[in-house]
UniProtKB/TrEMBL annotation:
It comes from the Eukaryota. GO terms for cellular component: nucleus. It comes from Saccharomyces mikatae IFO 1815. Keywords: ATP-binding, Kinase, Nucleotide-binding, Serine/threonine-protein kinase, Transferase. InterPro entries: CLK_kinases, Kinase-like_dom_sf, Prot_kinase_dom, Protein_kinase_ATP_BS, Ser/Thr_kinase_AS. ATP binds at residue 344. The keyword ATP-binding applies. Residues 1-36 are annotated as: Disordered. Residues 16-35 have a biased composition (Low complexity). This is Protein kinase domain-containing protein. GO terms for molecular function: ATP binding; protein serine/threonine kinase activity. Residues 314-721 form the Protein kinase domain. GO terms for biological process: regulation of RNA splicing.
Length: 738
């Protein structure tokens, strides 16, 4: 039975991969004389790294427990009312000295971060931040305290600036004085939300060739697709695949197989053989033939208990997924313990074999630089060629986030889990980008859950009745909350090295960045856009862009960002098209360019015919105008379900002002309802701030212009990752930690 529960209605697949036949280049970066398996060797560095991570993990877990205990001493049900302000403000700032200096915003409670500018006066812990803050004028909350700047004026300027220019002008400047942050107590965070990142953990590839990736994009790269096809081909040529021979395990059991406990081996193989015989009566189950078949399209034909690989090493147990590239199988591996693995069997077609070689080089680079899997990327265990199918052997994980959401009574994740997943995703992509790798296909289907253990809460009958039949059946009327939202990023089948060939269209539609839709050059920032789409999906429980074509996609992007495409970007689109720079999507003119006015450089939506009649369908108008909204308003609407009608984030307001509006509404409601005992959801300031800053980060990730979009590294330093929340995700974690 397939583990892949397909209950969703959408069919989402990545961009057409026909171009990938020409792709794939050199792995100038992989250690040439060494196989990647050499990295399994215990080196001193690895041991040190292990110890560091173990220390960090136990430190973070202890801190979470402490902070929960602390919260619970006051009131087990609600976050306690904090006496201290969460952020630096005029009154709370403590003057230290007068020297201006550049201040690092690294998370302050990271034991391993020696570069942090943390003031380490005494043992710090998870719930107390002593931190130096830079001043960021586009960030409404953090203002200089005793500087000569008039706070009101600065705030006014800031509001105007943030409304007009979004976050692109978010320049950090240093305060004229150095401040020590007031001790503050924040709500708890999961340890996964606080994972640290230092690129010095691994060696930057290509150092010898001096190709150190710059993980952003220049204006020039909007016009010219970077990357060389020749490098791709050259890289793929360097791939040497071991040919696995299909001899029967019953004739020539390999030495390592015979070293397994004989009873278990016989049991596995015996049962496989019995099932195989009964399943295929018409075929001879002669023991020296492999029962592994390929169809006319080059796909392996799935059959449970098939045996394949050298010496019949793998026994097929389940079909985990299938895509354009091939099939992913859950298999018993007779060589190693624990012996379940996932094997991606690539189609036996030259084009896909060629693309798989790039995937292989990417996976090898990841493996070389993170042999212990600290950065949430799938690890390649082995690779071989079997009957013209390239087979990639990896660890086996749970279902994808997409499948988990489909089978959940409430698809939305708790805020604490959104933050933990965001941290892992951004950190993982930061690692990839530092290695010069662009994933290009980040989506919930390509994010796997490491451990699916969860608690299940019964949903009220009314909620169950409102679910679709499919969801009702799949969820059994329950809301599932993972105990540990640890994830792994998979599917490097479309990933590229930044200096290799870039196909003109990448990503699955819903997660596709505007520069790709507009036919401009793309680079690392496209991954950041995709992550932002995924994060919104985790919060709202459905796809942010449920679209299938370019015009509606562009109209929705403008609606969600609350602003039109910047004219300089559209200008570049026209220029690139006019001068035929780089390769463009074949339908660019007919589905994108024709919808922009050449003079005003604005999108003409809704679409009109020559007579001026609107020809956009009513359904499409509804999807854009009714179903979606500016991001802060859209997310607020969903969160009202948890926090009541008063919850409303307005990204044009500074957080203090936004909060005072909400709290006055709450006060008013409490007075109205005091006699009627109405159960209005309580909302505290820190919970509001958690969501406010989440939306602030999203806004920076959804920057239209990729040259101005926040990088993964800067996103890890965003204020949001210093904020906690007390919700079901935290209590579930705490209850399971003993
Ligand atoms: N290591 C793994 N453990 C568990 N399941 C996996 C693993 N790798 C892949 N899968 C499952 O197989 C599915 C397809 O995997 P993958 O995306 O790598 O293949 P693909 O052929 O590139 O698919 P697509 O063309 O849809 O992108 C995944 O969505 C996931 O459900």
């Amino acid at each position: 039975m397939s583990q892949n529960i397909q209950i969703g209605t959408r069919k989402r697949s990545r961009a057409n991969m026909n171009n990938s036949s020409t792709t794939t280049g050199p792995s100038g970066n992989t250690s040439s004389n060494k196989t990647f398996l050499d990295n399994f060797e215990e080196s001193r560095t690895n041991r040190l790294l292990d110890e560091m991570f173990a220390r960090q993990n136990s430190f973070l877990t202890d801190n979470l427990r402490n902070s929960l205990d602390l919260n619970q001493t006051d009131n087990p049900l609600r976050p306690r009312q904090h006496q201290h302000q969460l952020f630096l403000d005029n009154e709370n700032a403590i003057e230290l000295d007068d020297e201006p200096r550049i201040i690092n915003t690294t998370i302050s409670n990271n034991n391993n971060n020696h570069n942090s500018s943390r003031v380490d006066e005494e043992a710090d812990d998870d719930i107390i931040f002593i931190k130096e803050q830079p001043i960021q004028f586009s960030s409404p909350l953090i203002l200089p305290s005793s500087s000569s700047i008039n706070t009101d004026n600065a705030a006014t300027r800031n509001n105007a600036g943030s409304a007009a220019t979004a976050t692109s002008n978010s320049t950090y400047i240093t305060t004229p004085k150095k401040f020590k942050k007031q001790r503050t107590i924040s709500l708890p965070q999961l340890p996964l939300s606080k994972l640290s990142y230092q690129s010095s953990y691994f060696g930057v590839p290509d150092q010898s060739n001096a190709i150190v990736p710059r993980v952003t994009q220049t204006e020039n790269e909007l016009l010219h697709l970077t990357g060389s096809c020749a490098k791709t081909l050259e890289g793929n040529k360097s791939v040497n695949l071991t040919i696995a021979h299909s001899t029967s395990p019953f004739y020539n059991p390999p030495a390592h197989v015979t070293s397994l406990p004989q009873s278990s081996l016989k049991r596995q193989i015996g049962s496989s053989l019995r099932k195989f015989k009964s399943n295929s009566s018409s075929e001879s189950a002669s023991s020296n033939k492999s029962n592994f078949k390929t169809d006319k399209d080059g796909h392996y034909v799935y059959q449970e208990n098939d045996i394949f690989g050298s010496g019949g090493r793998f026994i097929v147990k389940d079909l985990l997924g299938q895509g354009t590239f091939g099939k992913v199988l859950k298999c018993i591996d007779n060589k190693y313990e624990p012996n379940y693995v996932a094997v991606k069997v690539i189609r036996a077609v030259d084009r896909y074999r060629e693309a798989a070689k790039t995937e292989l080089r990417i996976l090898q680079t990841i493996m070389n630089n993170d042999p212990k899997g600290q950065f949430q990327c799938l690890l390649l265990r082995e690779c071989f060629d079997y009957k013209n199918h390239i087979c990639l052997v990896t660890d086996l994980y749970g279902r994808s986030i997409y499948d988990f959401m489909c089978s959940n009574g409430i698809a939305r994740f708790p805020g604490s889990h959104v933050q933990a997943i965001a941290r892992q995703l951004i950190r993982s992509v930061c690692f990839l980008h530092d290695l010069g790798i662009i994933h290009t296909d980040l989506k919930p289907e390509n994010i796997l859950i490491c451990d699916e253990t969860h608690i299940a809460q019964n949903l009220p009958l009314k909620t169950v009745q409102s679910l679709s039949k499919r969801r009702r059946e799949a969820s059994k009327g329950k809301r599932k909350i993972l105990k540990t939202p640890e994830i792994k990023i998979i599917d490097f089948g479309s990933a590229i090295f930044h200096y290799e060939y870039h196909p003109p269209v990448i990503s699955t539609r819903h997660y596709r960045a505007p520069e790709i839709v507009l036919g401009l050059g793309w680079s690392f920032p496209c991954d950041i856009w995709s992550i932002a789409c995924v994060l919104v999906e985790l919060v709202i429980g459905e796809s942010l862009y449920p679209i299938h074509e370019n015009l509606e996609h562009m109209a929705m992007m403008q609606r969600i960002n609350g602003s039109p495409f910047p004219t300089d970007i559209i200008d570049k689109m026209f220029y690139k098209s006019k001068h035929k720079l780089g390769n463009s999507p074949s339908d660019l003119n007919s589905t994108v360019i024709k919808h922009f006015d050449r003079k005003t450089l604005s999108l003409q939506w809704p679409e009109k015919n020559k007579r001026g009649d609107t020809i956009t369908t009513e359904k499409s108008m509804k999807r854009v105008l009714q179903s979606c909204d500016r991001l802060d308003i859209y997310i607020s609407k969903v969160l009202k379900q948890d926090y009541g009608d008063s919850f409303s984030i307005n990204w044009n307001l500074p957080p203090e002002k936004n909060w005072s509006l909400i709290s006055s509404k709450l006060l008013w409601k409490r007075q109205i309802h005091s006699s009627s005992n109405s159960a209005t959801n309580e909302l505290d300031k820190e919970t509001f701030l958690f969501w406010y800053w989440f939306i602030d980060l999203l806004r920076k990730m959804f920057e239209f212009d990729p040259t101005k979009r926040i990088t993964a590294k800067d996103a890890l330093d965003h204020e949001w990752f210093n904020l906690g929340i007390l919700d079901d995700g935290i209590t579930t974690y705490n209850n399971t930690q003993g």
